[in-house]
């Protein structure tokens, strides 16, 4: 795919604005973060920075290794200064995000929860007034495989919609996450929810590991446009 200017400019600005020498950085997952890693590698070279990068997925780990950045983890660095990550949809005003389109939501949320700051980078198309306006694939929910069916039934019974087991694109059968679990994508009916109530309900269902609802976690969201302009999402 060609360069996505709107993702790249936001991803670059996040690194230029927030990365300082000596920092512990959380590195998110997806396609936008690749641009941030590229920018970080460039700055490391130009400015002889020393930062430690904690990954949020096998993909992020591979990126850190490929760009010869210093690989860290939560054992050696349980306190992270700043995490930069993408999102599937960001609600203006609250900055609540739907994440997990790439299937990495659990480690992303863990790393984000250990970070002083969470900076979300995205193309402007992901900014919406209400979650679900553009992202139609539902809320990703990581579940223990053996509990999949009862969880599907509980969610649909409580809130309606459809909790769809995410199938692998390149392997017969369900997608298996980096943590060895399954993903349900809960496609919710068109009504506005109190997302914190939904999240709390989901988290209390035995077998649910994590949800792709990132509530009150985003400190700053930078969105880019096709002309390469970057704005702070409020
Ligand atoms: O899966 C995730 O949470 C990713 O961060 C994803 O939401 C963003 O992916 P993108 O940068 O490729 O759009």
Average pLDDT level:
97
Question: Which structural class do the helices and strands define?
Answer: alpha/beta
% residues in beta strands: 25-35%
Q: What is the CA–CA distance across the termini?
A: 30 Å
Topology:
Elements (H helix, E strand, L loop, with lengths): L4 H14 L5 E4 L4 H16 L4 E4 L2 H9 L3 E2 L8 E6 L3 E3 L5 E2 L6 H9 L1 E9 L3 E2 L10 E5 L4 H12 L2 E4 L16 E6 L7 H9 L4 E4 L1 E2 L5 E5 L5 E3 L2
Parallel strand pairs: 1-2, 1-4, 2-3, 4-7, 5-8, 7-14
Antiparallel strand pairs: 5-6, 6-13, 9-11, 9-12, 10-11, 14-15
Bound molecules: D-4-phosphoerythronic acid.
What does this protein look like?
The chain has 234 residues and is α/β, with parallel strands linked by helices. It contains six helices and 15 strands. The chain has helices spanning 5-18, 32-47, 58-66, 105-113, 148-159, 195-203, and strands at 24-27, 52-55, 70-71, 80-85, 89-91, 97-98, 115-123, 127-128, 139-143, 162-165, 182-187, 208-211, 213-214, 220-224, 230-232. Strands 3-2-1-4-7-14-15 form a seven-stranded mixed β-sheet, sandwiched between helices. Strands 8-5-6-13 form a four-stranded mixed β-sheet, with helices on one face. It starts with a helix and ends with a strand. The model has no long low-confidence stretch (mean pLDDT 97). The site of D-4-phosphoerythronic acid (DER) has 16 residues, from α4.
What characteristics describe this protein?
234 residues, alpha/beta, seven-stranded mixed β-sheet, 15 strands, 26% strand, globular, binds D-4-phosphoerythronic acid
């Amino acid at each position: 795919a060609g360069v996505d200017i709107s993702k790249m400019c936001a991803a670059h600005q996040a690194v230029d604005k927030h990365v300082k020498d000596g920092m512990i950085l959380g590195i998110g997952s997806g396609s936008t973060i690749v641009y941030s890693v590229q920018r970080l590698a460039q700055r490391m070279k130009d400015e002889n920075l020393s930062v430690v990068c904690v990954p949020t997925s096998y993909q992020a780990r591979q990126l850190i290794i490929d760009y010869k950045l210093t690989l860290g983890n939560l054992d050696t660095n349980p306190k992270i200064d700043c995490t930069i990550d993408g999102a599937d949809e960001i609600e203006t005003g609250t900055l609540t995000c739907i994440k997990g389109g790439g299937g990495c939501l659990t480690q992303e949320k863990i790393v984000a929860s250990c970070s002083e700051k969470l900076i979300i980078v995205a193309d402007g198309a992901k900014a919406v007034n209400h979650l679900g306006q553009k992202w139609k694939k539902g809320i990703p929910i990581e579940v223990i495989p053996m509990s999949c069916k009862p969880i599907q039934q509980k969610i649909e019974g409580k809130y309606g919609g459809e909790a769809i087991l995410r199938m692998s694109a390149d392997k017969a059968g369900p997608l298996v996450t980096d943590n060895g679990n399954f993903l349900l994508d809960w496609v919710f009916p068109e009504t506005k929810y109190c997302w914190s109530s939904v999240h709390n309900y989901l988290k209390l269902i035995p077998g649910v590991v994590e949800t792709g609802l990132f509530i009150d976690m985003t400190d700053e969201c930078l969105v880019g446009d096709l002309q390469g302009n970057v704005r702070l999402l409020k």
